[in-house]
Amino acid sequence: MKSTAPVSKNQQLDVTISDLTYQGLGLAKVDDFSLFIENALPGEEVTIQVTKVQKSYGFARVVAFKTTSPDRVTDIDKTYRQTGIAPLQHLSYDAQLKFKQHQLAELFKKAHMDDVTVDPTLGMANPTQYRNKAQVPVRMIKGQLETGFYRQHSHDLIPLTDFYIQDPEIDKAIIKVRDLLRQFEIPAYDEINDKGVVRNIMVRRGYYSHEMMIVLISRQQKMPSQAQLVEEIHKALPEVTSIVLNVNAKRTNVIMGNVTRTLYGKPTIEDTLMGLTFAISARSFYQVNPQQTEKLYQMAIDKAGLTGEETVIDAYCGIGTISLALAKHAKQVYGVEIVPEAIEDAKVNAQKNHLTNVTFAVNKAEDQMAKWQEDGVKPDVIVVDPPRKGLAPSLIESAAKMAPQKVVYVSCNPSTLVRDVKLFEEQGYEVDGPIQPVDQFPQTPHVESVTVLKRK
Ligand code: SAH
């Protein structure tokens, strides 16, 4: 197909950046043609070189800055952008928070929901070293086992020891495990030839408890020198209370396989959130930014406006974090989640916290919602916290049929949020009050928010 683009590959030109995309790329328009440019901020005048041309858009890189934005942070390490660990590191934190608020507001405006307003993003005082979980690939480079992160859009490993947005204790643990793997000469996975052993290392550390879990993701059922390795890991890292082997023998980009075995300690670590205790197993979802999660959940709970008399549904409940926090203020809570291990954790967590007014189901949220509706469950409030792809239309229909007064929508993806809010509006709901973004992922373009929908 012949390109109709007004620019061609390798061409150099001067542009002014007009916007920042939801991926954190600078946008420049040439006629109506969009060029996406890494490391470029709104208002900046730059000389660019076109690197890729598609039919209606292209990519370019900055060759020279003629002016720079007052929001630009200059003291940065560019590996964090190259790896996608911190693609917004070059934007000041205040501007990041405004960017996230603006993102949501623009999307609602574009969807012709002009009366929806968005509050300023709730940020962090220290927006680095916040992640309680790391998942890093392990590869051989020049015969030596390395841990780090992939260069964006590739599987080239860039060795890293400081991950910038992770709990530094996790960074230290990764280095220790790396050194022990080297010492025992356990080979890293070789993707190209589908050989070798260790594919990834996952580390989770309780923010309050300081309990640490190390998950070794292996292509083999048993790693060479496994017993000695495990022994040395827990000797070297006193916080480790759980070492887990996850076997993934498939040729796939999916990180974890289906077999998980505890090699040392317990299969879970514990942490607290909102004064509740949670057991978290290797394959369960747990919010990565504990400090902000408490703010996010508190917001969701406040907005639910519970008096102790309500029936509440928590869809996409994971290990029951929101469900249990709600249970303290409601009559009955129903939770649903697709990962069986997470529901096992959720049930243990209900017991741990002496909460008996919660029922958990393993199911697809959309199917369970239909089932609850058929069974005549009458929720006063429904909380949803779906993954990035948002809600299934059938879930919205079943939810609306149960006629809750309120739906509290915790979203990690503004575009699916807007789509779903539209569907709720068609079912007789309207947005109640401003949307509240909470920055769960500083230095990245991810936008988390809480929206309340009220039955008209
Ligand atoms: N509310 C929880 C989890 C939110 S993350 C917390 O804050 O900790 C989204 C969760 O939805 C994950 O646990 C994921 O396993 C689950 N999930 C994904 N698709 C699902 C589906 N179709 N039905 C139910 N749960 C699903």
UniProtKB/TrEMBL annotation:
<keyword id="KW-0949">S-adenosyl-L-methionine</keyword>
<feature type="binding site">
    <location>
        <position position="287"/>
    </location>
    <ligand>
        <name>S-adenosyl-L-methionine</name>
    </ligand>
</feature>
<dbReference type="Pfam" id="PF01938">
    <property type="entry name" value="TRAM"/>
</dbReference>
<dbReference type="InterPro" id="IPR030390">
    <property type="entry name" value="MeTrfase_TrmA_AS"/>
</dbReference>
<feature type="binding site">
    <location>
        <position position="316"/>
    </location>
    <ligand>
        <name>S-adenosyl-L-methionine</name>
    </ligand>
</feature>
<keyword id="KW-0808">Transferase</keyword>
<feature type="binding site">
    <location>
        <position position="337"/>
    </location>
    <ligand>
        <name>S-adenosyl-L-methionine</name>
    </ligand>
</feature>
<dbReference type="InterPro" id="IPR030391">
    <property type="entry name" value="MeTrfase_TrmA_CS"/>
</dbReference>
<dbReference type="InterPro" id="IPR012340">
    <property type="entry name" value="NA-bd_OB-fold"/>
</dbReference>
<feature type="active site">
    <location>
        <position position="412"/>
    </location>
</feature>
<comment type="similarity">
    <text>Belongs to the class I-like SAM-binding methyltransferase superfamily. RNA M5U methyltransferase family.</text>
</comment>
<feature type="binding site">
    <location>
        <position position="385"/>
    </location>
    <ligand>
        <name>S-adenosyl-L-methionine</name>
    </ligand>
</feature>
<dbReference type="InterPro" id="IPR029063">
    <property type="entry name" value="SAM-dependent_MTases_sf"/>
</dbReference>
<dbReference type="GO" id="GO:0070041">
    <property type="term" value="F:rRNA (uridine-C5-)-methyltransferase activity"/>
</dbReference>
<dbReference type="GO" id="GO:0070475">
    <property type="term" value="P:rRNA base methylation"/>
</dbReference>
<feature type="active site" description="Nucleophile">
    <location>
        <position position="412"/>
    </location>
</feature>
<keyword id="KW-0489">Methyltransferase</keyword>
<protein>
    <submittedName>
        <fullName>23S rRNA (Uracil(1939)-C(5))-methyltransferase RlmD</fullName>
        <ecNumber>2.1.1.190</ecNumber>
    </submittedName>
</protein>
<feature type="domain" description="TRAM">
    <location>
        <begin position="6"/>
        <end position="64"/>
    </location>
</feature>
<dbReference type="InterPro" id="IPR002792">
    <property type="entry name" value="TRAM_dom"/>
</dbReference>
<dbReference type="InterPro" id="IPR010280">
    <property type="entry name" value="U5_MeTrfase_fam"/>
</dbReference>
<dbReference type="Pfam" id="PF05958">
    <property type="entry name" value="tRNA_U5-meth_tr"/>
</dbReference>
